[in-house]
Amino acid sequence: MGIDIEKGSPNSTEQPRYAIVVLDENGNEILKAEDVTRSRLIRLAWEYQIDVLATDNIYELGSNDKDVISFLALLPENLEVIQVNVKNGMFFDLREVAKEYGIEVQGKPTPARTAYIVATLAMKRAGTKIKFVENRTKIIISKGRRSGPGGMSSNRYKRHLRGLVLRVFKKVKEELDKHNFDYDVVVRRTKAGMEGAMFIVYAPRESLFGIIKKMSGHDVNLEIKALYKDKIEFVDSKKSSQRPIIVGLDPGLEVGISVLDMYGNPLLLTTKRGVDRESIIELILEKGVPAIIATDVNPVPDTVKKIGGMLKARLHIPERSLSIEEKQVILNEFSTKYGLHISDTHIRDSLAAAIVAYRDVERKLRQAEGLIERFGIDMDRNNVFRCVINGTTIAECIENEIERKLFVPQKTETTKREVKPLSNEKLAEENTSLKHELLRQRRTISSLLYEKEMLERRIDEIKRLYNADLDKDRRIEALKNIIDQKNKEIVKLREEILSYTERISKLELALESVINGNSLIVRGNSNGLEVKDFRLFFNEWEINPDLTIYIGRDFALVDHSLPKDLRILMKEREANNELNEDKLKRILDEYRSNRTRRVA
């Protein structure tokens, strides 16, 4: 799909309209449309499954990098964006580029004609690809919903949620390891367990299809996001410094990065939250080529080891982890020298590691520099410094650099093609636009700095209040647990008291009957009655406890008339074999009723 803006502008209140042309793989025109809105452009891109979007100005899609990337993120995955009039970081007139590829353009082309030209040039591999999607994917595991305040049930629910988060974390890690993905992982833990986790997978989003699936539920969420850049980048125009540097790293959810040059001067002191290895490396390479990657702890963290391997830099690991006091002493001297105030703990740790590493090689670097000045030979000091840091002797490093100077490559004839630059009128427009943008950005920065200061103060205040509330909640939770335990003990004691009260009542009744001579003591086998383990038997019948006064383990107290009444019942049963169970039950009920009246 080739596009060109027709009217309106991303910078104005009038929404832009585009002319678009879609070509098939053979270069045949299959769609031509004008007055196309941004939403329709996105729909057509999905409908025709566009592989390449071609333009002569990427900022026709948005007023700044963020707007452009937000727009491009809505287009089909794997779509390439090409600006056809950019080569080796330089902008050229579209007509000159078209002429170079055999496309004749008479006068200023219409937007529809421009859309066709840029689409055709993209098919001919003209221009430069624009990179806005990282070759990385973020997997975020989190609890589905907050667990608010509560008692024992709330604590059980919190443990349940953390268990689910841990289970999903282990499943994702198992799948990534099984398919040999390279990844970093940051885990958020508390004393109570795992609260969440974030994987940075060094592979495009589509490579995870069918392996890791999204989850969205009440208990656990799993999000999968393709990582987008925060600025437009032309693939062939990225440049970085080649000077050797010393880098101190403090990895974690918040990564501290400190960069020093070969004289110990600070080039970068920053903290980045939630960044992956490649983002850290890109940030470092903007300042130079790392000769040393340093850490303040021993053993060395896995992330530092991986970054050192990827950058082929020497690792500097202290014999033992630096204490907070040691790091503070190092930083106080450094801060005084450079007039810095360092309050961020991550910068403190990374900077202390970098300074210690620099001090270990400083003497050799200065000796090498002194020899270079004494010899008076024009040579690249950076190459010598890098060589010395890698462990080679100073003499060998200087000889290697002299050998490199002795080698003179043969000159080859090259033909230069004069490229006509952009018109002065267009350059003036761009210059004016950039000046306005610069002023706007400066105002924004000033406003953001003030807002940052106010937010930091607010955060400190909230932290103080939060810690006080947290201590209060902990004390309340502890008291609730004590109260719950005491309540359980009270219920148990009440049940025991009730049981003892019932036994006392029975014993009092039994004692009264013995004193009054109204009871018969049954022990062993007496009058046909027998006691076995708190149970009373008359021949083969088991007597209901309600018919007795008291039953112990091996004795019982019964009414004097009970043996006589039971023998009568036995005779009636023998006399009338047809006496069924219902009749017997009725007779026993009558006996109980008569006995109750007698007792009363």
From TrEMBL:
Q: What UniProt keywords apply to this chain's record, in alphabetical order?
A: Coiled coil
Show the Pfam families listed in the entry.
Answer: DUF460
Q: Does this UniProt record's set of keywords contain Coiled coil?
A: yes
Q: What is this protein called?
A: DUF460 domain-containing protein
Which InterPro entries did the record assign? DUF460
Please list the coiled coil stretches.
424-510
